[in-house]
Amino acid sequence: MNLLRKHAGVFPKTSAQPLYLFGGNRALDPVSHEVLDDSYDMKVHFDWEAAHFLADKGDGLGSPVQLGSDEELLMLALPHHRDIMQAYAESTNQIYMEAGACTPTLHGEACGVVGNVWEMVESLANVSFYAKRGLDPDMVPDLEAALEEDLKYDVEPNYRRGAGDTYFSGKMLAKLARIILISDQVNNPKFVSLRKAAIDRLASGTEIWLNGKGQNPFIYDDQWGGLASCGCTFNDAGQNCSNTFPECPALDDMGNNFGFSFFNDHHFHLGYHIYAAAALGAFDSEWLIEHWEHILLYVRDIANPSRHDPFFPPNRHKDWYLGSSWASGVVTINKQPFPNGRNEESSSEAIAAYEAVALLGSVALRAFDTSAMVASDNPELKKSLDEKYAVAAQIYDFGRLLLSTEIRSATRYWHVTKDPKTRVYPAVYKPKAVGMLWSTLAQFQTWFGPEDWKTYGIQMMPFTPAAEKRDDPMWVHEMLPEFADSCTKDPICEQQGWSVLVYLSMATIGDKAGALKGIQGLADEVFTTAGGNGHSRTNSLWWIATRPPWSAPAPPPPSAVPVVAAALAGIALLSGGWMFYKSGYWALGWGAVGC
To answer: Nearest 5°: CA angle at 495, between 519 and 447?
Structure first.
């Protein structure tokens, strides 16, 4: 209480905003023009614009005045803030965790921090289309056999015409992109012609959504400032949209295209399309340069680094305080907001979206690099490319920042572990993952079903190099038995492609032989289902072939195992408390509703 009294007169002004300070030097390889090692720490500042509140005008409102040197703001920090917070200039950023200084929230203990400017240091690692290590030589024959078939893959015919939704079309494009990239890594000359044809198909399938010629074109919403989808009233018989622009069903039907035109899930949808564009740019810089401005519309919609863009808001989905994103847009229930606030289901697809943004920035840096040009060759061209290079640098760095912060929060708030150092949920929450995280609710199910395997699976797709940082092996080790058991008991899990994720998780924790047997035992049709059509046998084998050895650590002796305190005695007594929902029943938790 004394701490609260001491800082009661200091408050944050409405102009408070996050600031991003990038450090380090970026260099390109003089021959390949690839980004060299570019790992460095980056600083996120929460400048609270603190001021003092003096009630001296007789109106009870007071007036903000300049703070004295010893006056600092008291705010509450969540676990992922405290992990990386440090002192900054005159801001002490002292964390108080003693009794009375913390309060339980949906996101764990929120504890007092005294400081006017929070400084948090986030490590920005490189992004790549490839894993950190090479392919297991023993698995190269399996990969080559899979590539023989998968390099012939094409997206479904209706999506080649832009007829359908932007989510599954994006997943299929990104799937083809992964197959092409892996064939490049395998580097067998026999795949050259197959890869070239696949690149041509990928370009055609990507361009139909970029050039406005598809049956379900993107349009611009000048009220909210962003891309919308015209929508498609799909005709199964003709595999076409029965409507044409300007007849746009998605503008009235919140369920059309998963609510994209009401700003639902933009990062999920467009992240896949950006990934496909980035892969194409990796093979063909001229293609990227030609389509750059159209691709930028995707980036500006979901990961805009600029606060001065008059057409798109900055970082549409990202909640900088929570570190994670919100997937929900302006969709309502009977014209009313959702009672539990905003939500995000697939933390892994948010991670993949920001990985794609960073990769696009990386390949664009190479495409627009003019370091080898002589200014007199074409000064106007050089000026134009230099300007685009600067934009690419912003996209590259900002994409990595979005990626790193999304991973940090996903592993804290969607991945549930036994480790008391990282666990934020009380023992009453038994599952090893959260399916949907709302403003005031942690929910163990998905929008499309209550099955356990769906809840675990939606947090583990797609498998790209970023998944290595996303899926800590210890969490996978604890989670996999429940995921695998629920999948094994329900034949629909394999039929719809979700067992792919079980096998890839086995590889993550060292069982490469079991994972290989499982993937090779799947029917080809599994990779065409609603749950499996973003995966391929090639990409699955690539993941297995690039996994490092891993074994579970020995459990601590019984005397060292922390005992869960009897604080759960009051669980059901707290009104408006912590809650989770699983397959038809509610369970109350502890503490205040999430801040």
So the answer is: 110
Do residues 436 and 344 make contact, with C-beta atoms less than 8 angstroms apart? yes
Strands 40-47 and 218-221: unpaired
Question: Taking 70 as the threshold, does the pLDDT of residue 574 lie above it?
Answer: no
What distance in Å separates the CA atoms of residue 69 and residue 67, rounded to the nearest whole number?
A: 6
Dist. CA 33–CA 24, nearest whole Å: 18
Strand order in the sheet with 17-22: 17-22, 40-47, 117-124, 85-86
Q: At 85, is the secondary structure helix, strand, or coil? A: strand
Residue that is written with structure tokens 């050259």 in the block: 192
Cα 16 from Cα 363, distance rounded (Å): 34
Hey, what are 117's tokens?
């400017």
393 φ/ψ angles, rounded to the nearest 5 degrees: -65, -40
List, in sequence order, every beta strand (DSSP E) within 526-568: none
d(CA 314, CA 414): 25
CB 170 within 8 A of CB 147: no
Q: Is 309 left (phi over 0), alpha (psi -120 to 50) or beta?
A: beta
The Cα 171–Cα 389 span in angstroms is: 28
Check whether 566 has a pLDDT greater than 70.
no
pTM, rounded to two decimals:
0.90
Work out whether strand 579-582 and strand 442-443 pair parallel, antiparallel, or are unpaired: parallel
576: left (phi over 0), alpha (psi -120 to 50) or beta: left
- Separation between Cα atoms, residue 592 and residue 595, nearest integer Å: 8
Which of these, 175, 183, 148, lies nearest to 159 by C-alpha position? Answer: 175
d(CA 429, CA 441): 12
Integer angstrom CA distances of residue 588 from 19, 84, 329, 438, 445:
37, 31, 27, 15, 16
CB atoms within 10 A of CB 87: 13
**What digits encode the pLDDT tens for the residues 20-45?**
776 555 555 545 545 555 666 788 88
Q: What is the pLDDT of residues 319-345, one digit of tens each?
A: 999 999 999 999 888 888 899 999 999
Q: Count CA atoms closer than 13 A to 111's CA, side-chain side.
A: 15
Helix or strand holding residue 76 (H, E): strand 74-77
Query: What is the CA angle 6-8-11, rounded to 5?
Result: 130
Residues near 37 by beta carbon (within 8 Å), at least 6 away in sequence: 126
User: Does an H or E element contain 472, and which?
Assistant: none
547 vs 137: CA distance, rounded Å:
12
pLDDT at position 587 over 50: no
**DSSP letter, residue 40:** E
CB neighbours of residue 98 within 10 Å: 9
Separation of alpha carbons 286 and 288, rounded Å: 5
Q: Are 138 and 189 a contacting pair, CB within 8 Å?
A: no
Q: Classify residue 27 as exposed, middle or buried by CB count within 10 Å of its CB (0-12, 13-18, 19+).
A: exposed
CB atoms within 10 A of CB 241: 23
- Span between the terminal Cα atoms of the chain, in Å: 20
Distance (Å, whole) CA 300 – CA 315: 8
- Nearest to residue 232, comparing CAs of 242, 224, 219? 242
Element (H, E) at 75: strand 74-77
Q: What is the pLDDT of residue 320?
A: 92
Q: Tell me the C-alpha distance between 36 and 21, whole Å.
A: 20
